[in-house]
């Protein structure tokens, strides 16, 4: 059993994230009833079952992560949070154990939508490299790319987190089972991120050069 320590995030509709006690470089995601559904805040797994036919949202996320990370070359794995699997926690429920992304100063890395400094082009170039060399190349149905799900480890290193959105969440969009439409939806996610970050549309850059 994993002993939970400090709560480091309760942002979002599905979960809380705690530091692992006595292992500050690790954290655990535990489902929490933050999101309203029909006027109440029920167990997120109840909502997931009713809306998407998913029995356990964290197991679903871990399966999505495993599918994605199996397609990621070693040189790009530092841009994906490392997830170790499901473990029982001191809360009496199972949680998703993962590395805690840290800044060079030793603090929890902020998400892109909370980062206040101007980031260099290399940061967004590397994000676009992930789109092209992982998601586009393998037609992966991951639709959770957004500023809140990109952590800033340092000014040159984006790290993707949160793998709860794939075609199962969009059950009525049967076209997402066709690779072309999957790639287009992922591309739109990245374009929206670039637009909200107020940078150029990196999907339109013909040749990437992510070196400083």
Detailed description of the structure:
27% of the residues lie in helices and 20% in strands. The chain is α+β, with helices and mostly antiparallel strands. It has a single domain (4-204), classed as Transferase(Phosphotransferase), domain 1 (Orthogonal Bundle). Strand 6 and strand 7 form a beta hairpin. It is globular and about 50 Å long.
Radius of gyration: 17 Å
- Helix-strand category: alpha+beta
| Intertermini distance | 44 Å
Total number of distinct structural domains: 1
The proportion of residues in beta strands is 15-25%
CATH architecture: Orthogonal Bundle
Topology:
Blueprint: E1 4-9, E2 15-20, E3 23-31, H1 44-52, H2 57-69, E4 83-88, E5 94-99, H3 121-138, E6 150-154, E7 157-160, H4 179-196
Brief account:
It contains four helices and seven strands. β2 and β3 form a beta hairpin.
Give keywords:
two-stranded antiparallel sheet, 212 residues, 5-stranded antiparallel beta sheet, 27% helix, Transferase(Phosphotransferase), domain 1, globular, alpha+beta
């Amino acid at each position: 059993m994993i002993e939970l320590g400090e709560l480091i995030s309760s942002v979002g509709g599905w979960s809380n994230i705690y530091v692992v006690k006595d292992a500050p470089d690790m954290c655990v995601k535990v489902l929490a009833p933050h999101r309203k559904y029909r006027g109440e805040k029920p167990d997120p797994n109840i909502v997931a079952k009713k809306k998407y036919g998913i029995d356990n949202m964290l197991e679903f996320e871990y399966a999505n992560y495993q599918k994605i990370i199996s397609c990621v070359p070693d040189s790009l794995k530092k841009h994906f949070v490392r997830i170790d699997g499901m473990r029982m926690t001191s809360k009496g429920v199972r949680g998703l154990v993962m590395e805690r992304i840290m800044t060079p100063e030793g603090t929890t890395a902020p998400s892109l939508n909370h980062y206040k400094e101007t980031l260099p082009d290399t940061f967004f170039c590397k994000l676009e490299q992930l789109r092209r060399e992982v998601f586009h190349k393998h037609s992966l149905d991951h639709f959770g790319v957004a500023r809140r799900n990109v952590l800033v480890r340092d000014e040159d290193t984006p790290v993707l987190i949160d793998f709860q959105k794939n075609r199962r969440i969009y059950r009525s969009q049967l076209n997402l089972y066709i690779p072309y439409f999957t790639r287009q939806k992922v591309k739109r996610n990245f374009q929206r991120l670039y637009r909200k970050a107020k940078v150029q549309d990196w999907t339109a850059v013909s040749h990437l050069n992510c070196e400083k």
